[in-house]
Amino acid sequence: MNYPTISANEFEERVKTLNSVMSENGVDLVVAFSNLLDPSSVRYYTDFAAVNESAAFIKVRDGESILCSGQASYDYAQVKNKLSSAKIMVFPEIGEVSGFEYDMAGQMDFLDCFNELKNKYTIKKVGLIGKLIFPAVIYNKIKAAFDGAEIIDFDLLHYEQRIIKSPAEIECLKTNWEMVSELFKDVVPRIEEGMTELQIQAMFEYKMLSLGAESYVQAFAPMVATGEKNSFISMYRNTMRKIKKSEILNLAAGVCYEGYNGITCTPYVLGEIPQKIKDAVMCAYDALNFASAKMKPGTPCDIVLNAYTDYLTKYGYIDYCPYGSLHSTGMLECEAPVFSTENKRIIKENMAICIDAYFKGMEWGSFRIEDCYLIKPQGAERMTTYNDKAIPEIFR
Description:
This protein is of the alpha+beta class. The protein has two domains: 8-162, Creatine Amidinohydrolase, Chain A, domain 1, CATH 3.40.350; 164-395, Creatine Amidinohydrolase, CATH 3.90.230. 36% of the residues lie in helices and 23% in strands. The protein has twelve helices and 15 strands. Strands 4-3-2-1-5-6 form a six-stranded mixed beta sheet. The longest helix has 21 residues, at 167-187.
C-alpha cells in the first residue's frame, strides 16, 4: 500500500486559486472556520486540523494569509502547516470550548486582528466559509471591524474549488479507498453471533489504524446498526446489543487518510438469510450498478438519479427509498456541491462521487449499500471494492 501526501507546492497553488476566485467575485477578505465536525476548509489550504480546538484561515485578496490556531494546538499548527506564506497566530476565540484561559504570550483578539487588516487594506466585501458552524463570536467582530462591508456566503465558491480532484488528491483517495476495502474484507468475516455492536466497532477501528488511517471517516465512528429497530436509525451510536443470526446488520465504516475520506456501507446477515432480505439487498445492489453505469463525463446527474429511482419503481421497492443519494466526497465523506434532479449538475472527469442505495423501513429492518467512485474518461470506476464481490456471494 502506498502512502502519498499532498505537496507544499499544491497548498500554495490552492491559495493562489482562492485569490483568483476572490478577484473574480470582488471579495477583499475571506475567513474560513473549521472545527472537529468539519476540519476540511482550513486543512484544504494549510494541511492543519486542530486536535482539541477549532481553527480559522484568513486570506486578504492580493495580500497576506493567516493560519489561526488556539493555544493548545499552536505547536501542532507549526508542525503541520504546509503553507509557507501563511503567518501562524494564536486566538483565544478558537481555543478549548470550555473557555479555558492560557497565560500565553503573543495571543491576539480577532477584533484587533481585523482592525489591523482594515488599516492596511481596503475591505468592502468579506466572504465566510463554514456557514453552518461559523461562530457568532468571530462573526460579530468581523461586523464590528468592517462596519458597512458586505458579508457574503463563500461556501459554494470554496466547494467548487474542491470538486475536481488533482492528481495528488486522487492518489491519497486511492490509498484511502484501498484501506476501506481491506477493512471490510478483514472485519466482516470475523463477526460472530453474540458480539455486541460496540465490539464490532472496535474491530473496525483497530484494523483501520493498523492499515495507516489517521482516524475514522470525518466525522462519525463505524456504525453497526443491528436488527429491525436499530437498523432503522440513519445516523447511529452503537450499543451493547448482541447480534443474532438471520437478522439484518447495517454496517457503515470509513477512514480518513491525509485529510481525505472514503466509506463503504453494506448489509450483512449471519447464518440463514431470509429470502425477503436477499431479494431487497440484490435489488439495491443491482439498482446501484444500473445507475453508476450512467455516470460518465458530460452526463447530467439527473439521468443517474432517475435511473436509480426508475429501477426501484420497476421492482417494487420505491416506497422504501427515502432518497437516491449522489454526492461528492473528499475532505468530507459527504461534501457540497449537491447533485440533484433539480440542478442537473454535470458529471465531470476526476470527480470523486459516492452512491448510496438506502432501503428503509421494511418489516425486518433497513440497510445501505454505499461505495466510492472515481469518474474516469470512460465512466465511473468503483474504487471501494468489497461490495462488488461480497454482496453477490452472500445474498445472490
